[in-house]
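It is worth pausing here to work through a concrete case rather than discussing structure prediction in the abstract. The textbook approach is simple: state the sequence, then state the predicted structure, then interpret. We follow exactly that order.
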Amino acid sequence: MLENIISIESGSRQMNIAKRLEKYCKVPALAGFEEPMIDALYSDLKPFCDSIDVDILGNVIGKINGTNPGSSNLMIFAHIDSIGMIIKSIDENGYLRMERLGGVPEKVLPAKTVVVRRKNGAHVTGVIGTTSHHFTAPADKYVVTPITELFIDIGAKNLAEVLELGIDIGSPVLYEPSFRELLNGRVSGTSIDDRGGCAVLVEVAQRLKVSPPKADIFIVGSVQEEFNLRGAMVAAQKILPTAAISIDLSVSCDTPDLSGKSSLGLGLGPVLGTMTFHGRGTLNGLIPHPKMLDLFEAAAKSQNIKTQKHASLGMLTDASYVQLVGGGVACLDAGWATRYTHSGVEVCQVSDLEQLATIVTEVAQKFSSNLDFSRNPTNS
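Step two, the predicted structure:
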């Protein structure tokens, strides 16, 4: 499946990131039900970490010991959970009703293939029903059906059959996992948000194993990001990092529908966040620490990698809460451009992930164990 990616973007590391991304995109792990990704990331990180643990919430926390540990350390993290739905009711005929968990766009749901998790961890395939075209009223053909009117059809004949399968109220539902190769080193997949970040985490850990950092580095796969940013803050409370880098996607605007919204595009290099603000709900966001910006940009320059920048409303990452831990954490958002976010068929460029891993590794290797991130003018 990946032969063309490898031939277009030659190099074993490109191949490794692509294969890891494919592996992770095919792992269904809804926020709060991350066990399959916990197992996958734990197994993949373990050979490259000096110690690794999973906390009560499910965060995977690996530590790479620095050669000269001191007062400063760095946390690099990406979330392992996905958006999806939760079963809220089952009718007598075996149809399932659902609620959204995370930012699921209702307009993509009708006729979407999904998987429903059983109590034993196995999954049942289902289809979100849509009114047959032949009986759809003209006035309804251009209307987005709210999730409250949608249902999942798993082929069951009645309620008893559904319950016997181990599906009940509270069962998780996800887009059917997929991964496909496109042209020009691009791929489409389910939950590239944030399985791309997870692939980068493992790549960074693998490189740091070969070339150890000076400071202690913590590699974290966080849970429940899509459920109001729960996990990374708890991991940071345990680690108490001096600084942290959130690895997550940014919205690519190189498609006809978003042309002009921003300059972000596929294949133009990793993305550096200069400001995020959700603007609703949490009213949270991040203005990155200036010294972390300097470190990232210096690392990119030293590796001759071009980067992109964004300042975005309507977006946020786990870093918005991590920055508030302890006496404050110097945080930075770093990522890659992705098309069709939260739709179940997200698209990215493999080389952007590879270059992001190179920059983050460089930051980690150059991160001094005695760095002072105080913004006191006397420390400038």
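Step three, interpretation. The domain at 3-82+190-375 is CATH 3.40.630.10 (Aminopeptidase). DSSP finds nine helices and 20 strands in the chain.
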